[in-house]
Amino acid sequence: MLNEGCDWSPVAEVVAQPGRFTVLDDVLTLAGLARVRAGLLEATWTERGFPPGTVSVRYPDAAALTGVVEQITRRVRGTDPSLVLSGTWAFMYQAYTSAWLHVDDASVSFVLWLTPNRYHRSGGGLTVYDLALPAAVCNSRASALAYFEQHWDGRRTRIGYRCNRAVVFDARLFHGAEPGLFLDQGLEGRRLVLSIFFTRTA
């Protein structure tokens, strides 16, 4: 499933040092990418209220992901055995107009983009802000946004969309999906993203 040519070494720095992120390209083999997409597209999706038209599936079953979560977990935990898998979530939409700035309830986030580039029209990447929410601050939407407005110094990094690209980052960093547009060809053409979360136990 995983592409052996992908260099995972930068993940160790993300895990070891707060406030870091990295980008991995060509994470899955082409066959693995096809199997994961097929499994997720056959999953049962639930409509979400943000943004309109977005559907999601939380904790998709192992069969739908054909073992990829387990393989990614082994790679991430190889850098720090105290990290445990704490959640998986898949999202899908055709158009996105809001960055939905937020912080994840985890230690490390692994976000993998799965829609072929031929369906991509604009945007759809990820913006990572140079600000982390301290553990002492409640991660409610109101509290997190208030902290962001008071402390963000204007620095951020935009990571462009590319199929089979993963962004691995300190989950306490503020981040948001970049507004984007994908070709409307039914489920096949929607932006499909798999998010995997890891929490440190020690």
Task: Give the helix/strand layout.
Blueprint: H1 10-16, E1 21-25, H2 30-41, E2 46-47, E3 55-58, H3 62-65, H4 68-77, E4 83-93, E5 95-96, E6 108-113, E7 120-123, E8 126-132, H5 141-151, E9 156-159, E10 165-170, E11 173-177, E12 180-182, E13 191-200
Antiparallel strand pairs: 1-10, 2-3, 3-4, 4-13, 5-12, 6-10, 6-13, 7-12, 8-9, 8-11
Strand residue content: 25-35%
Q: Which class in CATH terms?
A: Mainly Beta
SS-based class: alpha+beta
Give the spatial strand order of the biggest sheet. 1-10-6-13-4-3-2
Query: Largest sheet, described in full?
Result: 7 strands, antiparallel
Mean pLDDT: 89
Q: What is the molecular shape? A: globular
Domain tally: 1
Number of strands: 13
CATH homolog superfamily: q2cbj1_9rhob like domain
Ends: how far apart? Answer: 30 Å
CATH topology label: Jelly Rolls
Radius of gyration: 16 Å
The CATH architecture classification is: Sandwich
Uncertain segments are: none
Helix content: 10-25%
Number of helices: 5
**N-to-C series of helices and strands:** HEHEEHHEEEEEHEEEEE
Describe the structure.
This protein is an alpha+beta fold and 202 residues long. The protein has one domain (10-200): Jelly Rolls, CATH 2.60.120.620. The protein is 22% helix and 34% strand. The strands form three sheets. The protein has a seven-stranded antiparallel beta sheet. Strands 5-12-7 form a three-stranded antiparallel beta sheet, with no helix packed on it. It has a three-stranded antiparallel beta sheet with strand order 9-8-11, with no helix packed on it. Strand 2 and strand 3 (55-58) form a beta hairpin.
